[in-house]
Every structure is written in C-alpha cells, then in structure tokens.
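FYI - complex with zinc ion, inputs then prediction.
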Amino acid sequence: MEAETLSGFMQEGELMNQKILKITLPMPLGMGTVNCYLVLNQNGIFLIDTGGPNNEKMLMQELEKVDCPPEKLSLIIITHGDFDHIGNAAFLKNKYGLKIAMHPEDSGMAEQGNMFFNRKSPNFLVKILVPLFIGFGKSRRFSPDIFLQNGNTLSSYGLEARVISIPGHSKGSIGIRLESGELISGDLLDNTKEPAFTLLMDDQIVANNSLMRLKHEGIVTVYPGHGEPFDFSVFKPKN
Ligand SMILES: [Zn+2]
C-alpha cells in the first residue's frame, strides 16, 4: 500500500490534554478494516487494540509514521479478545516488553487462541470470523499482565480514562472512556455504514443493557473498532 493512501487512514481528534489517533488496518480476505487507537498525553502513549495477525508490518509502519514507535509506548489496552484486535499484542509484549491490559472474561481468548472461548453462540462466527484464525498461531497468544474491571481508572498508568464494562459482543468487552467524554468502544458499536450495534453480537439483551449504561456516561464521541467515529448524543440503534 502506498504512503499517500496510508496517510488517508489517519485521523486526529484534539481533546483537552489527550489526543486520539486512529489507525485503520485491513482485515484478511477483504473483510473490511479494523481500527487501533493511540491516545497521547504528557505522560505517555497508549495503544488501544493492535489489529490482526496479518497487520504486524503495517501497524509498525503506522506507529513509526506518527512518531509513536513501540519503544515509546506506555501500555497496550485491549477492548476485547477477538483476533483482529489482539493480533499483535504478544509480538509487542515479547519484543518490546510492553504490558497488556484487558478484562479477565476475554483473557481465555488470548491465552488459548480461541474466539469461541466463553461465547454463547459460536454459530455466527463460523462463516465470518473463522478466516481470522489464519495466522493466529501459538506465538500470537498471551496472558494479560493487567486485568481491567468496570470502573477502574487508568490514571495510575498515566491515562486519564476509566474502564466501562460493555459486554454483548463478547463477555469481556470494555470501553475506554476518556476524561473528556470520548469512548473507545471496541466492537459493541460500529460505524462501517452507519452507527449501529455490531452485527456479530453474542448476546443482544446484554448488549442492550450495556448501551443503556453508556447513555448515562456523558459520552460525546464514540471511536469504534470498525468504521468511523460518530456523535453518540444522536445515536439510536436500528438493529
Ligand atoms: Zn470483535
């Protein structure tokens, strides 16, 4: 992919004292794209999600391009255990000694390399997500260093943000709510065509409850795992 095209993938949103950069990476087999986010502040640089196993080289290039090489990163935060989000976490941990934080409910996905781990209904995954198994070998698996729970603040790591548990897409899905009202949402919500719940839902009732709780969190903008950021104040799910 050419540099000009790549630069089109980067987006910036200025916050009070924290800046979000979006990195968009291609999924395998033409399955669309997946987002990782960098949050930069005076304390450090935080990488939220890491793309899929097929994205290792491009992720490194993108990090270099925005002057956030792995050596400069403070922490990796994982929104949930799907392979298109955890694909390069083990590589970054093993090569650069970075710590990985995620919710314990999804840690089995990362440890066993199994997206069916603790999901209710694996049927929806069979057709659509199994291709992501390609390339997800033992070297990609890891155990998290830090467990994140609902309500945890991340300020002790230097990030002015709070963890909100938002199960539905997976049991251990979390959103990272920045102090200034942005939510990095993982896959509960996406915006590939329009803002919506993900079509790949494990438990819609649980997801509805997650959304209800988000409505009371004063969220301004959602930065989803797939698609473009959107205004949360006008969001009404159709599905
Ligand atoms: Zn997912």
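Residues 80, 82, 169, 187 surround zinc ion (CB under 6 Å). The mean pLDDT is 89.
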